[in-house]
Every structure is written in structure tokens, then in C-alpha cells.
Amino acid sequence: MSKSVHGDDKRCRLRAAGALNPHPERVIAEHFLTGDFFDPHDLVQLKYEMVRRVKSEGQSVTQTTAAFGFSRPTFYQARAALEARGLPGLLPQRRGPRGAHKLTDKVLDFVEERQAADPKLTGGGLAQLVQEQFGFPIHPRSIERALRRRQKKKGGH
Questions:
Q1: Can you give the pLDDT at residue 2?
Q2: What is the pLDDT of residue 157?
Q3: Which of 38, 71, 83, 105 is the most buried (most CB within 10 A)?
Q4: Per-residue pLDDT tens for 11-38?
Q5: Does this model's pTM top 0.70?
Q6: Position 150 pLDDT exceeds 80
Q7: Which helix or strand (DSSP H or E) is residue 10 part of?
Q8: Cα 142 versus chain centre, distance
Q9: Exposure b/e, 110-136, CB count within 10 A at least 16 = b
């Protein structure tokens, strides 16, 4: 397999994992420009090597972040993640809310009460009631999924 095909394949995998460096052109660290092993497209490798150089080789944070194309806050975040969780800590984390932040227990209790009072209510009708009662929009499918998860936790079908 040619180097460019292999590189394209790796970039596709990095992109799928959310670990593709959007600015490889900013990387000026020598090993990442001349070798086959170090890849300026690989965010995890870049962050690990950046932290390692400061810690093991005593390079300054300012010079190292400039060579790796990152900001100082990115360095400190990477170092903290590496210290707290090891190498997996450098893997990109899912962005956005972690779970149904609008569908609190209070909201779901309200929804279940309304559905018990009127079993014909659909997700759309329940979403409208939530909007009226709590003042925020919620997608009908979000309500339906949350109710199913809640039923599973309770041991129902």
C-alpha cells in the first residue's frame, strides 16, 4: 500500500474518531515534519508528545505549544487529562450535554402523570404540555425516548 493511500486511510479513521487535527500546517515540531511515525494530523499523538517534551525534556510551555500549533490552555488541559486518565484522557470527548438535561425527574413525573390521565396523548401533545408548563421546547422523540428509558429502569417493558 502506498504511503499516500495509507495516510488517507489513517486520516479517515482519525476524522471518524474526532481525533483529526484541523490545522496540521501549524505544527512545526521537527519530528512531525520529517518522519513517518510522528503524524501532524493525529491530535492524540500531538498532545501526548507536547506534554512529554515539557515534562521529560524540560522545554518551555510557550515554545512547545508554538511548535505543536496549540495554545497554552490546550497544553494545560492535555496535561491535566493525561495525569487524570492516562492516554485515554487525550481522546476527544463528546461535545454537548451529557444526557437529557431538560427532562429532569420533575418534568418526567409531570409527563407520566399527564399520560396516565390521558393515555391517547402522543409525544407531540406531551411536548406541548411541557412547553406550556415549564416554558421550554422539547422534541417529542426526546420525551418518548426518555419515557422508554425510565420504564426500562423501573423494570417495565
A1: 47
A2: 59
A3: 38
A4: 999 998 889 999 999 999 999 998 789 9
A5: no
A6: yes
A7: helix 3-17
A8: 20
A9: bbeeebeeeeebebeebbebbeeeeee
Q: What is the CB neighbour count within 10 angstroms for residue 29?
A: 18
Q: How many CA atoms lie within 13 A of 136 on its CB side?
A: 8
What pLDDT digit, counting tens, does each position of 87-110 carry? 999 988 777 766 667 888 899 999
Tell me 87's DSSP state: G
Calculate the alpha carbon distances from 71 to 25, 27, 126, 140 in Å.
Answer: 15, 12, 46, 41
Measured in degrees and rounded to the nearest 5, phi and psi for residue 73 equal -60, -35
Residue 81, pLDDT above cutoff 90: yes
Give the amino acid at 31: H
Amino acid (1-letter code) at residue 48? Y
Helical residues (DSSP H) of 86-137, grouped into ranges: 105-117, 123-134
Q: In 3D, which of 33, 36, 49 has the Cα closest to residue 87?
A: 49
Nine cell digits for residue 27? 505544527
Backbone dihedral angles phi then psi of residue 95, each to the nearest 5 degrees: -85, 165
Q: Which residues of 74-87 are buried (b: 16+ CB within 10 A; e: fewer)?
A: bbeebbebbeeeee
Q: What whole-number distance in Å separates Cα of residue 21 and Cα of residue 43? A: 5
